[in-house]
């Protein structure tokens, strides 16, 4: 789950397509995935092995994907929505059930991840995990240290305690512009159920968010990657992979900016990006072949080594680079994993309540 | 003998119908679809609203299911009203600033030696050769706290603390004025260039000073350009989404953003459509005013 870069995404929806190795009639699979989310060698290897050509398009927000899927007739064979969106899309009848006889590599999946995904997709009937991650705190190590030597970097206090976040207001604080990510964090910080739909709980979370609002410079779902990497901001609530990407960019730039990511000890949201096949997919057989290929341990490991996200493939773990497997920001330890929580999609009424509360937080209206 | 006279009446009728056909296909049909969705109810389905018309059959039965509930909803929450007002305000201020910046440019261009003019027009159009998005991104690089503007001002010693322009309404104004400036300059230039210099000479002969000549001759005659330019800036600025999203702060409330929320965050296509219909009505009023103003100007001559 990368940034849901507002409407911009519609404008810059870049399309990357691999060259057809050989025109082979209907031996083609149309894949629609997040931007910067795959090692392109995987696609050419797949074509080499199966003779199926891959047409690969990218999006950068769940909303864009969902709007296309709900309108129907996308022509895509494999799409990669986040689990929360997937759950609602299954309800709307967007996807077809996976034919598990065509997916022998399902034996490689990580049961713990599959079990958590089952909350959204019962029996994992419609989808297979591609990558998963957390929503936590990214920060500029030096700037935080300078302003508060004993900063509680591994706690939500960094964000939700007014007297703490106030110290960082001058160097820039950004939050995801995604109520579905921020409200659960605020609710869990208050000791309430992160998945609560009770209007009274939502009100309490709104109060909390309003109390820290003066110190937040901007709510945006992708700007913080560059802003953290360039040292323009010092604190952000964002997706694990995005913050780690900012960390790497800062390292490469060599301007002395050090970015770190922490999963707050109170618990954080866990998200899953799931491969699924639309009901009207023109090439369902090729789609199954593609998903089965992605489930190979060496392919899943290659994907994770490239994008720095954890995958849902247990068998791939021995094949992962050490710097990926041993980074607790990517593969958190068991103690931390137990504290991670998930959230089901809101019903339309709660969704409206939460969106309205979010508008109140962000605009003051 | 010109081409038009050689045409048969049928050909002539087809030619006059082309614009109406375009209007029908690309404006009226989409408008009716949006209007229909705005009278529907949201649902978890594909597409995410009902009723859906599958054809003319049962049309009347389904028409009865339509409801105005979405419009009641919009009227009931001050958020939408504030968004409209705030959008109109931002667009109005931007238009005024664009006019103040654009008029001297257009005036200078119209007064430049005739040989230079094509090159000057070229310079005004030149920015369009770069993607709109890249140009807005470039402003982030200029306006951000550690950006070019602050570096320059700190270097000159004019300020000792960086200015926080990025993520404020000021940045939105700067972005809109910059991006829409050519739309103001070109119509102004077109009217100012046509201005007959003999009129100014006559005014001078009658004893009018430079300022009086400008306000009593040049400016009134350039009014059609002022109006056309202002509308070309104002109308798209009201619904602007990309500039406030990239340059504005979270407190920047604009109708484009509210619409995005309805469509994408709430997945409520019907309310989003109702907001769009109301936006259209808000935009139609200035267009009608503009047409009246133009008609009056035409009659005065």
Summarize the structure.
The complex is a heterodimer of chains A (365) and B (301). With 365 residues, chain A is an alpha/beta fold. Chain A has helices spanning 8-11, 40-50, 62-71, 83-92, 111-117, 141-147, 157-160, 162-165, 179-189, 199-212, 223-230, 240-253, 284-294, 297-307, 322-325, 334-339, 348-363, and strands at 28-34, 53-59, 78-79, 127-140, 173-175, 218-219, 235-239, 259-262, 269-276, 310-311.
Question: What this model shows, in words?
Answer:
The complex is a heterodimer of chains A (365) and B (301). Chain A has 365 residues and is α/β, with parallel strands linked by helices. Chain A contains 17 helices and 10 strands. In chain A, strands 4, 5, 6, 7, 8, 9 and 10 form a 7-stranded mixed beta sheet that branches. A 3-stranded parallel beta sheet of chain A has the order 2-1-3. The longest helix of chain A is centred in the C-terminal third of the chain and has 16 residues, at 348-363. The two termini of chain A are 29 Å apart. Residues 1-25 of chain A have low confidence and may be disordered. Chain B has a single domain, classed as MetI-like fold (Orthogonal Bundle). Chain B starts with a helix and ends with a helix. With 301 residues, chain B is mainly α. Helices cover 74% and strands 1% of the residues of chain B. In chain B, strand 1 (41-42) and strand 2 form a beta hairpin. Chain B contains 14 helices and 2 strands. In chain B, helix 11 runs antiparallel to helix 14 (269-300). Classes of the chains: A alpha/beta (365), B mainly alpha (301).
